[in-house]
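Issue: copy button drops trailing tokens. Both records pasted manually instead:
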Amino acid sequence: MRKVSVIALLLILAAGYALADPALGGGRGLWRVQDARVEEDGALVFANRWMFNREAFGDVSVWRGPLYGLEMNYAPVPVVEVFGSLIGITDFKTGPNRLYYDWQGESFGAKLSVPFLPVFKLAGTWHWLMERSDYHFVEDGFMDGLATKGMSWRAVGAFRFAELYKTLPTLMFNYGQSFEENGNKFLGAGIEFPSNAVDLFVEITSEVPSDENFSAFFGKDYTPKARVAPGVRIKIPYFHLNGGVEIALNDSVPDYEAILGFSFVSPFPKMKPKPWGRLAGKVQDARSDLPLEAKITFPNRKIRPLQTDPATGVFFLQKAPVGVVVVQASKEGYIPDAVPMVITDRGFATHTFKLKPLVPYGTVAGRTYDIYSGKPLEAELSFTGTQIEPVESNPVTGFFRADNVPAGLVSVVAQKEGFFTEERVVEVEDGGVTKLNIGLASLDMKGVLKGKVVDRKTGEPLIATISFSKAQRPSIHTDSATGQFELELPVGSFEVKVESWGYLPQPSSFNINKGDTTTRIFEMVSKGMALTLKGVYFEFAKAKLRTESYIALMEAARIMKENPDIRVEIQGHTDAIGTDKANQKLSERRAYAVINFLVQYGGVDAKRLVAKGYGESKPIATNDTDEGRQLNRRVDFVILK
């Protein structure tokens, strides 16, 4: 019961600390249990430890136990540790005081560690104890399994939970066996808790002969050597004090053995740690701020390229060289971007890259619907002349959205079986959203447009192109021989522009009704074309229009309205009867009379009209006959532009 109480008290005191010094005989660990890690890279550690127990013979006390002298650990690289020790015994008696000691042998060993796995560490150790055969007290068995005799191996595992949270402990597990026929098997486990000043730990171990008849390490009649040993380590710079007690769990070992010692951590010259810092960042689309899967390179440093996470666009470099590091982000279809970043020792630098696309783009969004009922329609929308895949509008709402559409003028074609195909040309803004709603007409809701394009003056047929404003549908061409055209259109209102080479464009609008044929004759005019307004009459020797002239003048107004972009000169002409001066003034007044009529009754903008009188200076027939003079008394309609 007393042993159990002592163990419980020591276990309570051991909470919260860790150890990082040599085990007995060498090699980083606790007392008998080895750690899977090695000493710090380049560390050189010297230690001395004495294990002893007290026996009383009347008034005489005897303090006797093994002595570990001149222990040494050295870790040349982070995965290898070599160690050695002289092992002796001491015998100290009181009354009178007498100290006797002798060396029992030497031990050497090495450890190969795999410390790179997260939390879980692995190692293997090799140990060789060269025991002397003639030291004093050899018959008392002071070696007592402190180190397995001869050559032995040990498998070591450790769970370093401090990598998850700094105050968590490290668990250690050992299993080993001697290569000698009469050697022992070893099993041990320990727990340690780190702190900056004081380390506490506890371990439990057991040893049995290697013979197959001795398979259990605890609770058997052959009484394996089982112990539990708590310990404490006080840390002073370059110097550690060690203390603990080893308590027997059976009668095959002393009830207790005290452990005292010290270790000296040499400031052994070693390379200064290479400075490094951390570098992290993110790559986004400059327009949408969406993450991009991009390549990260370092033009001025020999660093392996990184790839950003496709879901988040984040990249991270755990160890970046200190100084100025140029970081470049690149992705196909985007303009690369590079920035210099200053990395400080153990510092953290970040940057967010916003890459711009090589081809500016925007978004086209809207809805498709039945143009007559207003109900949403599911339709396919394609983008002519681009690499954008067609999109489908939602069958319930009719809404659609297309991203990464090249900026500029883009033709959008909406198609649905049983409906007329519709085409729209929209201007897509860089980084913007262009709204587009397209109404589709059922194929049974249609009419016919037919007509002809001719020269206004001669009536000759023309080869012309008829295009629909707002790109409601593809342009059509007239027949090269007849100037005629004909096509089916959905019911609705349309605006067109008629164009023919050498002629001024002529806009027009019309309605298409279900089952009806709409006919249009387009009479084209050209710059410089002169049209004589036939049927325009004035009072004799006056500038007053006669009422029978109104039909011809309204036809002139119609030409102006059909060609809203033209500017016209109204020319007045007379015959040769009378003086030149009188005829000049009369022709000017008659030209102004025509303009006044066109403005007042024809609704023509006065800015589009110019009046000019030419008198008798430009006859088109002889003035010697009545018929000739009648032709010379005229009003011409001349296209200026």
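Record 2 (pasted manually too):
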Amino acid sequence: MLSIMETRESSNTAQPPPTPAEAEAALGDVEQARASISDIRTPLWYFLAVGAWIAPVGPLMSLVPDLPLGPAIFLGGLAVWAAGLAGIVHLVVKRMRVLAWLTPRQMLPLAVIMLPVLVAYIVLEGVLDLSWATNALTVAVGVGIIVFGIHHRFRGGTAS
């Protein structure tokens, strides 16, 4: 559907500028569309799926054998993992009928959750030299995404 300011005519044809009333009506349409999108909440299942998809990556990586099969298994697993993540994102966009990005204010709780996770990882891996910390990192990140999703869905989910 074309707005008041759009036409089906060729762009080579000189068009008079819109009248103030037409411009105001077009801006009203844009504001109405923006308002309807801001009420959309990302479904909780999306965060659960992404968290569950990310969490096992570290532990599964520890199972990859060394040469000669290791790199091939890693690349195959990476392709499957990326396709799965793309499928999750595609499904949520298809169901929501819009790709809505979270605002920096909405992302702040995720930073609050992930900062202690990253500090703990730095301490466990870098300072204490615990080799399992790398495998545990993706589990902690997956759980953090799920916790963030619960918070976002039930506390701060609407876009601003």
